[in-house]
Every structure is written in structure tokens, then in C-alpha cells.
Design brief:
162 residues, alpha+beta, Endonuclease I-creI, four-stranded antiparallel beta sheet, 6 helices, 47% helix, 22% strand, globular
Length: 162
């Protein structure tokens, strides 16, 4: 099987994503709400690129491929896979300037999230929460289509109370 240049693909269609999310557990009594930091590595393309996404999955030996009506999407969301596979891969296989800067910031976020794996947000060090907020703000300048963070205000509020 021919090797694919994942770094070149990521330069154009990849994303190192850091989000602060609100999740509501509707199946539980009183539907409790949880806030959490979510990190993922994503490559997207037209639906016709599904085989290519599968090749990326096979080469990295982690992640999932999903096909929607008009898009193929490869993503790695498990923090252990990101730490043991994705980060070493892009440390070795260099990215273009803008994407490399985005990756380097994201890598710092991964370290913080991995270090706090399994802990409730209230048990995190205030410093870690502030760092993630700053990293998320800094990353937006390297995104092609930066989205405003829906729950960033809540993250800032939580960071003050921890």
C-alpha cells in the first residue's frame, strides 16, 4: 500500500481542535449539565475522499472515519491516542508554518488535559484552566474559519471559582 503524506493533507484540510463544551445528560434525572474541555484532531474532505480518510486511520492505527451526506471525516478524540500517536507523528513530520504554530499551541493544551484526565474541572489547578483559555484564544488566529467559543465565558467563570 502506498504511503500518504498526512502532514500535507493536514496543512490544507486538517484541524487541531480545542473546545470548551457544555453537555447535558438528558437520560439522567433532572438532566444534569457538565462542562468539559474537549480536544480532537480532525481531517475532513468531500465524501469521495472516504478511502483516503481510511488510509489515514490505517497508517496512524487510531481514530474513526465518519461519512455524512457530503463529507468524509477522520478524527482522533481519545486523549491517550492523541498523546501517544498524533503528537509524536506531527513532531516528526513537520507541518507548514501556520499549521505548525497551531499544532504547537494545541500540543500544550493536550498536555494540560492529559495531566488532568479523570479529574473534575473543580479539581484542576486554576493555572491550567487559565492556560487552556489563553491557548484557545491564541489558536483562533491560525484557523481558516475561526469559530467563536460558545462556552468560553463559562470557562472563565469556572477558572475564577476553582
Amino acid at each position: 500500500m502506498e504511503k500518504i503524506n498526512i502532514a500535507a493533507l493536514v496543512n490544507s484540510d486538517g484541524c487541531f481542535d480545542l473546545q470548551f463544551r457544555k453537555d447535558t445528560r438528558h437520560e439522567r434525572t433532572n438532566a444534569p449539565t457538565y462542562y468539559r474541555w474537549k480536544i480532537q484532531f480532525v481531517v475532513t474532505g468531500p465524501k469521495e475522499s472516504a478511502k483516503l480518510m481510511q488510509k489515514i486511520k490505517n497508517e496512524l492505527e487510531c481514530g474513526e472515519v465518519h461519512i455524512t451526506r457530503d463529507q468524509a471525516r477522520f478524527s482522533v478524540q481519545k486523549i491517550d491516542d492523541i498523546t501517544s500517536v498524533v503528537i509524536p507523528y506531527f513532531t516528526k513530520n513537520k507541518l507548514a508554518d501556520k499549521k505548525r504554530k497551531d499544532f504547537e499551541l494545541w500540543q500544550k493544551a493536550v498536555e494540560i488535559i492529559h495531566k488532568n484526565k479523570g479529574k473534575r474541572l473543580s479539581g484542576w489547578k486554576k493555572n491550567d484552566l487559565h492556560s487552556l483559555i489563553e491557548i484557545q484564544k491564541s489558536c483562533s488566529k491560525y484557523k481558516n474559519r475561526p469559530r467563536s467559543s460558545k462556552w468560553l465565558e463559562m470557562a472563565q467563570t469556572l477558572a475564577k471559582t476553582v
